[in-house]
Amino acid sequence: MEESKKSCFISDRVDYKGDPADRNTTGGWVPAALIVGIEVSERLSTMGIIVNLVTYLKGTMHQSSTTSSNSTSNVAGTSFLLCLLGGILADSFLGRYWTIAIFSVIHALGTCMLAISAALPELRPSECNLHHDFPLKCEEPSSFQMGILYTALYSMALGVGGIKSSVSGFGTEQFDQNDEKEMSEMAHFFNRFYLIISFGTLLAVTVLVYVQDQVGRSWGYGICSASMFLSIVAFLVGTKRYRYRECTGSPIIQILQVIVAAIRKRKAELPTDLSFLYDKASDKESTISHTDKYSCLDKGAIITGMDRGADGLTISNPWGLCTVTEVEEVKMLIRILPIMASTIIFWTIRAQLLSFSVQQAATMERTIENFPIPPASFNGFFVGSTIITLIMYDRLLPFLRQSSNGVQGFTNLQKIGIAIFLSILGMAAASFAEMKRLEVVRANRGSTSTSSTLPITAFYLLPQFVLVGIGDGFMYTGQLDFFITESPKGMKAISTGLFLTTNALGFFGSSILVTIITKVTGEEVGHGWLLSRINDSRLDFFYALLAVLGFINLVFYLVLASWYKPSPVEDAHQKINGKEEKV
């Protein structure tokens, strides 16, 4: 009787009062769904704004083509970069629940401020006047107007950083990994999480973008804000049903401790018998065996005279002496950094679909049966391709396992490689499509105004959205699973943050590349690749350059992937997944 009573409680989770979590009254699919609801609303709001931001900055705020592109990339990049900060705050101080709650409110307030800035004429410049089919002079926005706009956008970005860093982790905490049934449910949660939020993205780039273009920006942004506030209310309603994990300290501190200890003992010599290195043998399950790589860090585990007290016992000073396991965890994190670096170019290519590709679509014919497709809604083909890829791969997985002796179809490294290859094809297709569009621009130069639609269908842009979209399905799932399975047990949160940081570096890389290309090629029509007006630019050259950079990156990645040896944890993970899916 006493044993059955104990089994109702989960040892490593607590309820909202801080007591051991009851399996029967906390956790499960309902609380997990409320948590995912926050991420769906965040995706709906963020993507509904970001994908159509370049047209707002260019058309309403009168920024140039390159400036509006860079502004969009910077906002998106900052959103992902702040995920690392959000993860540190969640692990070290706030916990995932309060991190989600606080930053969701910040996100909602940011979108609300954006809706107000779009609604009030005083917060945006007046419209351009047309004369003889050419704009006379567009009024530049004031510093105050841009200040309000950027405050709203970066408040939203700050909210994204806190939400994304904690939602997936808090969702998985609603399932007990030591219970066979709940462990199986958690596997389904992982598989469906990205698929569900992708549908939120699809709704954003279609319905919300249409509302912004056809009804009004203030209405579109207002819907974003309202959806976030409603999801916050739903999230708070589930407070008593959630399971919580108490903060255990920041992995950033552990990394710094290992580095500081190794530097302090840099002159010490490693013992010939590595068993003399300091380690705690009390918890054998979490102990990691010593490896020879990055041996300079091993010096942090050398026991010297300064580590012992007068009684000869070892003093526990984590800034002067670390365990072998702590050192090995830092080594594991270092091992995945080169793979992380090789994925940045993919996200740089992804950034173009939110900026220059939208500007291309804005100049082309986009109507179907007299129904106008908003330029930003072409990202719906990207999202749709991602969703179809995930669904088809999930359906084909049993057949792939049969041909590979029960092991999952593609490894995580293979998925990443496929994604990089598809992104190269996408940029090659984008370059050819832009060449065709520029031919039409030149043919209609004398008779077509700068504001009219070119007589060429925007569906020429479809291959670049579809190819990179399929690649995104492989990249996101492969990269996320790789970072989680290859990172040490105590650093899963920071590994997720690093994964999202690659997205940020890709968007910032796009801004840097655009700035460099603009300075190198100049701003003269006929020579400059990226000018203030897209019809005067040579965007085909820019896309071709990205394809070349992607190919060089692919070669670099293949070398790294061939050298990389997956940890035993990942091999076991793949086999377990194969076994679970069969059951």
UniProtKB/TrEMBL annotation:
Keywords: Membrane, Transmembrane, Transmembrane helix. Gene3D superfamilies: MFS general substrate transporter like domains. GO terms for biological process: oligopeptide transport. One of its GO terms (cellular component) is membrane. This is Dicarboxylate transporter. It is a multi-pass membrane protein. InterPro entries: MFS_trans_sf (IPR036259), POT_fam (IPR000109), PTR2_symporter_CS (IPR018456). The chain crosses the membrane at residues 100-120, 193-212, 218-237, 373-393, 413-433, 453-476, 497-521, 541-560. Belongs to the major facilitator superfamily. Proton-dependent oligopeptide transporter (POT/PTR) (TC 2.A.17) family.
